[in-house]
Amino acid sequence: MELAKDIWQTALGKLQIQVSKANYTTWLSDSRGLSCQNNTFVVGVPNVFVAEWLSKRLYPLVRKTLADIMGKDVDVRFEVHNREQLSASPLVAQTDGGTSSKAPQCRFNPRYTFDNFVVSDSNRLAYAAAVEVAENPGSSYNPLFIHSSTGQGKTHLLHSIGHLTTNNGLQATYIAAEQFANEFVLAVRENQVDKFRSKFRNIHLFLFDDVHFLIDKKQTLQCFFHTFNELYSNNRQIVITADCAPRDMQPLSSKLKSRLEGGLVVDLQPPDFETRLNILRAKTEKTMASEMEGVLHIIAEKVCENVRQLEGALVYLTAQSKLSGTKITPETINKLLTSMTCKQDIKLLLRMVADHFSISPEELINKKRDRKTTLARHVAIYLMREGYNCSLSEIGKELGGRNHSTVLHGYEKIASELSTNPNLSSQIAEIRAKLNPPKGRRGTYQTA
Ligand code: ADP
Ligand code: MG
């Protein structure tokens, strides 16, 4: 029993980096290792729906993860363990501003504060608006809508607002749209939609991240707008982020769009060279500042797509030099950065393709074979080959160990269909445009 518990904890650690954060929180975080007998590992989960979901979607991944840890193949069973557990656990990152007897508990990311946010012309307006709504919630811009391409600091600003309002004794709730959608589906299954919605009723600030994720999820979107309207009419502050402005969210009705843009809409632009350098300086350990200055210049010059990649490059290079005990030189930087950015871009590509087809990135990788998933997988193969010149075996590896001929078949299928299927070619153009937004600096893809 104790052994199963420990093994499962280790497995959770590994699974956490393999599935999306929202999926981890919704489906795995409340699970526990119950037993391991007769080559069957039993995982306890809070309800039947979670058990079904995990069996259908994550079974191969969980099985492989356990086999890696235990050094042998085991079967996996998901069993309902304790129904109370789910309702007892907080479903969203929430802060208690002191209204209950429990000690205030803050679950915002401690690194995402206004103090740690480097302000420049590319983000000044969004920053100022975020500070304003955090200091005077509900009285200036409501809703505040912040949009940008990925990795430009939207989530950072939402968490910063959360920190400041909590420090001022107010209650703020942050939730990412993907998690909202997962929890809504759970609530529908469990007949607990009212309970789900009531969680948001008494908060002062509603911080909603990545609303674009809901665009084609009709029911969830409706639930979101009920929540929005309720909070808005009670004069509660709402801050929303997305990858584009409300007017560009095509499938939304004009009524919903005008609701979203009824307050202030601001964007975050990709940072210029000087800002990239300042961000890198801010993220470099003080003791290493002077030694790293030259390196930071090179990174700021080479990595210009988004701040997440910039930060990733710094962490990666620092770790590599510590591990190998060698100094970072311009020559090693070039080599390391090329392999790093390519890997990150592929992750992003898989995510974009999955989002486009309304499936999860894990489904692209696992064995699911319905029409939609297969088409999405083929599109991912095509884009990886065209955009990043990946070899067939590299693509196969990225897609859960598929073999060379399966990958080639997928590629050829899309390549041959493109000339006769305008719908497919416009879908591919749409995904390419998202990967290469017009404001971006790279140009891996030609959108023609
Ligand atoms: P988004 O939500 O727009 O995809 P994030 O908020 O997750 O982007 O930002 C990605 C990373 O870049 C985070 O680690 C964040 O702290 C960092 N970051 C983004 N913009 C800034 C900035 N102006 N100053 C400091 N760090 C930033
Ligand atoms: Mg974000």
List bound small molecules: adenosine-5'-diphosphate, magnesium ion
Order of helices and strands: HHEEHEHEHEHEHHEHEHEHHHHHHHHH
- Overall pLDDT: 83
Number of helices: 19
CATH superfamily of the largest domain: P-loop containing nucleotide triphosphate hydrolases
Task: List unreliable stretches of 5+ residues.
Answer: 84-106, 437-448
What's the architecture of the largest domain in CATH terms? 3-Layer(aba) Sandwich
Distance between the termini: 59 Å
User: In one word, what is the shape?
Assistant: globular
* Approximate helicity band: 55-70%
Oligomer: single chain
Category by helix and strand content: alpha/beta
Question: Within the CATH hierarchy, at the fold level, what is the topology of the largest domain?
Answer: Rossmann fold
How many structurally independent domains? 3
Q: Output the CATH class name of the largest domain.
A: Alpha Beta
β-strand amount: 5-15%
Going across the biggest sheet, name each strand in turn: 4-6-7-8-5-9
Radius of gyration: 23 Å
Total number of beta strands: 9
Describe this protein's structure.
The chain is α/β, with parallel strands linked by helices. It has 3 domains: about 1-85, DnaA, N-terminal domain (GMP Synthetase, Chain A, domain 3); about 125-265, Rossmann fold, CATH 3.40.50.300; about 345-435, DnaA protein, C-terminal DNA-binding domain (Chromosomal Replication Initiator Protein Dnaa, Chain: A, Orthogonal Bundle). Helix content is about 55%, strand content about 10%. The chain is built from 19 helices and 9 strands. Strand 2, helix 3 and strand 3 form a beta-alpha-beta unit. The termini are far apart. The model is unreliable at about 85-105 and about 435-448 (pLDDT under 50). The protein binds adenosine-5'-diphosphate and magnesium ion (MG). Magnesium ion binds next to helix 6.
